[in-house]
Amino acid sequence: MERALTTPAPKNTTAPRNTDGAYAYLDLLAREASAVEFEGPILQARAAGADSATLEELERAKVAALQVRAVLRRRAKREAELSALFDTASDLAGLRDLDAVLEAIVHRARQLLATDIAYMTLNDPERGDTYMRVTDGSISASFRRLRLPMGAGLGGLVAQSGTPYNTADYFADPRFRHTSTIDVAVHEEGLVAILGVPLRLGTQVIGVLFAANRSARPFVQEEVALLCSLAAHAAVAIDTARLLQETRAALAELSEANTLIRAHSESIERAADAHDRMTGLVLRGGGVEDVAAVVTEVLGGRLTVLDDEGRPLVGESGDLDTGVFDAAQSSRALGRTVKRGDAYVASVDVGAAPLCTLVLRTDHPVSDTDQRILERAAIVTALLLLFRRSVAEAEGRVRGELLDDLVSRPELRGLDDRARRLGVDLDVPHVLVVARHDGQRERGAFWASSQATLAHGLATARGDEVVLLLPGDRPGALARRVAAELSASLGRPATAGAAPASGPVTAVASAYQEALRCAGALVALGRTGDGASAEELGFVGLLVGERREVSGFLSGALGPVLDYDARRGTALVKTLNAYFGTGGSLSRTAEALHIHVNTVTQRLDRVGQLLGEDWQEPERALEIQLALRLHRLRTHMPDA
Fold first, then answer.
1. Which class for 284: exposed (0-12), middle (13-18), buried (19 or more C-beta within 10 A)?
2. Name one Pfam family in it (predicted).
């Protein structure tokens, strides 16, 4: 009995093997071995001849290890899902681009559910269907453009009902209303298993998030829950983007309204300031140029001010097209600024007759308020022109009465004093111009009065002629200028004669008679529309001139030849006398002068260089012959 009690118990040979098997499975779990490798310890034990109990024990250890492995894998998958959801939430927190966030959600859905494709559709309230918004893994262009009617297909059913649906084999599933359009697109994409979950905002379904495979596959509840979580994030992203967009739109509208209010306020301030400045200019005696300067300073651009005839008072009018004048007529009819191309036109009339037109050309648009500034400027300009016209008419009457008295009643006393009060100094050289015309008498008189005022002279109208007394000492040049400018103003020829009016008051009356005869001579000579003085009319000037200036005539007709003979000691005058005396015969001229014909030719060539190539024309030749005779007379009569 004692021996039996002290005898050691038999050695358990399976315990070590069981321990070894447990360690083997722990090692497999540690290195995340595949499920097939968990059969290895059992196969090794069976090969080593282990008994049935040992094999059974190893089988239980294998099952437990596989269960632990499944739990670990589920937890790892859950951890990855939670991490993806956390990343999605982080993306939403820093939302900048809705498309990028939705693409990231769809991409994560595809990765986490290990599907071939993931995509998202959104409802279109206006059309009453759903459309493809984002895809990941799609290979079909028509699938990416697919639209699903409400209730049709799996996606249409999810969008309509707001309930997740999934199918392991879409085409064999009778729960969905199949349509040819959807089935063709799904077949072209090669989809078989599809899971769709609703995108919810409160109780409203705004779309569907899908995960799909191109082979049959069931979707477990955990995958449905995961896709629902991603769909919730997508709905939040869409709603956040909508709110941000509405906020940005509201801010943009507020900013635009604030900008408009500020611009309107600034325009009103500009208009008030411009109005005050233009009013001040009128009170201080400013002119049209000053008003134009205010307009361009306030509004910018280039301003052209036109008078009633469309002639520029300020700026240039050469590049204005005819449309501007049509716009001016419309502006006068409407009483508002009219835009034509890049030009803003404001025009004012008096008694249905245009008075002035302002044309503002600018590269930037002019607001309605700023257009009112242009209209006020046009009115101020019109008032200035009316005032100027009234003053000019009153002053013109006074100046015209003085010139009438100087011309017709020079014996009146106090004419000098009256001239000085009008700013006319009769002691300085003046030119009296008589311009004959067949145009409008009032317009001709207004033009002459304006010219006299600008030049500090006098003007009057006498029937179909205007008379001007202007400072100057060049009668011919002034006569031509008056003829040209008055012709342009009247639109028909005006002929002007001029004479110097220097010396006593009575010289004005004499100058008037001479200028009148000059104008008549020009008309008689067929030179209507021209201007000249008596000195420029050649021998005719000897008839019409008051002073009968032979010296001036000789100088004009023969001066260069006389000067050449005096300087060189030549005989050009003598040759000319002989040439005209022989009827223009070169040979007889040579005989009369006892020189060679070639010498005569050379001398006449020199005459042509001095007097001009037209010296032998009939009219010019007549003047030269008369001048030669007068020269001979003066040679024999020094006092002539």
1. exposed
2. GGDEF_2
